[in-house]
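Researcher: We're teaching a course module on how sequence relates to structure. For the next exercise, students receive a sequence and then see the predicted structure as C-alpha cells, so they can try to spot secondary structure elements on their own. Here is the exercise chain.
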Amino acid sequence: MSSVKDWAAPNPITENRGGLIGKGVDRYEGRLKVTGSAPYAYEVEAPSRPAIGYMATASIAKGRITRIDTSAAEASPGVLLVWSHLNAPAQAPRGTRANPRSQRPSNPALASDRIENFGQTVAFVVADTFENARAAANLIEIEYAAEQGVVDFVASFDQADQPPGEEDVHIGDFPAAFAAAPVTVDETYESPVQNHVQMEPCATTAWWDGDKVTVHTSIQMVKGGQHALAETLAIPSDHVHLLTRYIGGGFGGKGQAYDDLILSALAARALGQPVKLAYTRQQMFHGTIHRPAVSMRVRLGAQPDGRLTAFAVEAITHCARNAIFTEHAANFSRNLYAAPNRLTGHRLVKMDLPGAGPMRAPGEAPGMLSLECAMDELAEKLGLDPIELRIRNEPDVDPETGKPFSVRQLVQCMRDGAARFGWERRNPKPGQVRDGRWLVGMGMAAAIRGNFLLPAKAGVRIDADGTITLRQGMTDIGTGTYTILAQITAETMGVPMEQVKVEMGDSNFPPAPGSGGQFGAATAGSAAYEAGMNLRKALTELAVGDPNSPLYGGPAEYVTFENGNIAIENRSETLAALVARAAPEGVYVEGSISPAADARDYSQHTYGAHFAEVGVDTVTGEVRMRKMFGVFAAGRILNAKTARSQITGGMIWGVGTALTESNVVDARYGSFINQDMAGYLVPAHADIVDLDAIFLDEADDKANPMGIKGVGELGICGAGAAVANAIYNATGVRLRDYPMTPEKVLEGMLAVGL
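Model: And here is the predicted structure for the students to work with:
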C-alpha cells in the first residue's frame, strides 16, 4: 500500500508542465450534449425496434393487494404483456447475495401482494407505444386492504431509536459543562423532506443476446447496478453488460437501481425484443429515494469570550421501514469547532414512506442549516461578530480524534470572503438597513465536507496513430468527469487533449466506485493518473530498448513526455512514431489507486465560507437574493470552469433549501403532495443574482497523488444557513423551520412589530 510520503513527491500532475491542470477547459462531451447527440439511457438506439413499458403504482401507504384485474389491460391495443405479483417472473428474494462480493443485493420487483409505500410498483405493462402502455396501465383494477401506516414524522418521535450499529459520541462531560456555561444556546431546527428532481428521470433500455443482457441505464454506480441486476435475476454478473455513459443529473438519487432496471431486463427476456422503461416525473417522487426530514437539536455553551466549553448536536431523522438509511446530520460537526465537552448522535424513525437516501451533501446539507444558525445566535448573545466567534473556536487538531489536519484553510476562507464581500458594511443590529420597502441584511456561514479516496482502477491504451484512450467504469452525472479525466491523462502523458479519448460508464471497463460522495474526481482521477504513469513506464522501456529509437540505450530515469514527444534531453520522437514502429498493435496498461495506510493519520476535509445579502419585502415577507459569494479550499483544482460550476450549483441549491424546497406528506395516503416541478419549487434564474465563488490556492498531498479533493457537495454545505442568517440580520426574525417561505417570514415580522 502506498504512503502519503510517496504522494508528496513531484509528479507530472503537480508539476503541470503542460498547463492543463487548473485550466478552464470546456466540457469534453459538451458539444454532444448541446446538439442532442449524446444518447441518454432512454434514447439509446436498440438493435431492433423496442417495446415500451409503463408502471402502475400503489395508492396506499401500507397494506396488501386483495384483488387485481388486468384483463382489460391485456386486451388493450398494442399490449404485449401485463405483469403483477401474480405472474411476474421469478426473482431472487430481496437482500440475496449469491456472490458475497456483490456491491448490491437482489431487489425484486412485483415480489408480493404487500404494499410498503405509496407509489410502489404494483403492475407493469409493455406495449408497442408509450401511449398504449400508459392507457392499458390505467385500465388495471386494484383493490387493497389498507393498514395504518406511520407517515407523520413529528408525531412519531417517540418511536425514534438509535440507528443499528451506532452509538452517541461522548467526549468530556457535556451535561455538566453545559449546565455551568454562562452563555448558552439550546434550539431545535427543522428541515423537511427534499427531492432530487433530476432533469433526466430514471430510465433503462434493455435487450438480450442469448443468456446475456445489455442494459443502458441512468445510474451513478456502474458495478452497483450490474450486481443488483445480476443478483435479482440470479445470473452471473458477467452476464450483465451495464452502460451508463450520459446521466442527466444524479445528486445521490441515482446511486442505486430501481424497478426500471429490473423490469425492463425481465420484459426484454420474456418478449425476445428490446424494452424501454422510464419513470414519469410524478413516479420519480415516490419510486426513488428522497432526503429525509431532520429535526436537529443544537446546544452550545460558551464563556463570555466566546470559547465553546460545551457542544452538542443531536439529530432525529427517518427512513423507510424496510430500507435502513440514516441522514448523518451531526457527523460533520465533530470536526468543525473546538470544544472540550461534546455530544453528537442520531435517532431514526422507521416509517411507511418511500425510501430515504443520500442527496447532495447527505448530512451536511441539513446539519449545517442548524449548527451554523446556532453559532450565529450564540454570536449575538455574546456580542461578537459571527466570523470572530468561529475564529475563536478554530481547533488546532481534529476536535474528536485529535489527529492533525492534512490542510485546513477555513479561517482564511472566512477572512478572504469577508474582505471581498464587503462584510464591514454589515450592521450587526438587525432590522436597521432599508432600501425602500425592503429590509436588507447580511449573513455568513462556514462550510465543511469530508474528503474521501476509494479503491479504483483505470485502463489506458495508446494506438499506432498516437491516440490515447482512457477506459474506466466511472460515470459523469453532469459534473465534468469526462473532462477532468481527459486533462489528467493528457497532462500525465504530455500530449494535447485532442489526442485523448475518454470512455466511461461501462461495466466491462476497469472498475471505479462511480460518482457520489464528492469522491469521484479524486478516486477516478488518481486511478487514471496511475494508469498513465504505468503507460509512461511501458513506453520508456519500449523506447530505450528499441535500436531504431533515438532514445535507444538512454537512461530511463531521464525520459520526459511533453508536446506529444518522448525525449531524453535533445533526443526525441513522437509517441505515435514510437508506437507505430515498435508496437503497431498498440500498448495497453492498467493502474489502480487505494487509500494510503498512513492517510488515516490525518483529518481530511474541504472547507469554505458563504456570504449572503438578502432583501426582505416588509409587505409580503418575500425574500430576494441580492448578492452571494463563497470562498473555498478544496485541494488542487483540476478545471477552473467545471469546479466553479459545481460549487456555484451547490450554492444555488443552498438557496433552495433555505427558501423554497420542501415536500409534505399527505397523511391520508402517505404520499408527497408535491409530485412535479410545478409544485416542488427550486430556484430559477430570476432568483439568483450576483453570485460568485473563488478557490484558495491549495494542494493536499495527504489526499492522493494529485493533491486534489472533491467540490461537488461542498457548495451546498452551509449555503442555506448564510441565507437564513441574512434574513435575521435584515428583520430580527429568527426562523428555525425550513424553508423560510414568505408566510413564515411575514408572520415573524408581524410578531416582532415590523
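Model: If you want an answer key for the exercise: The longest strand covers residues 308-320. The chain has 18 helices and 29 strands.
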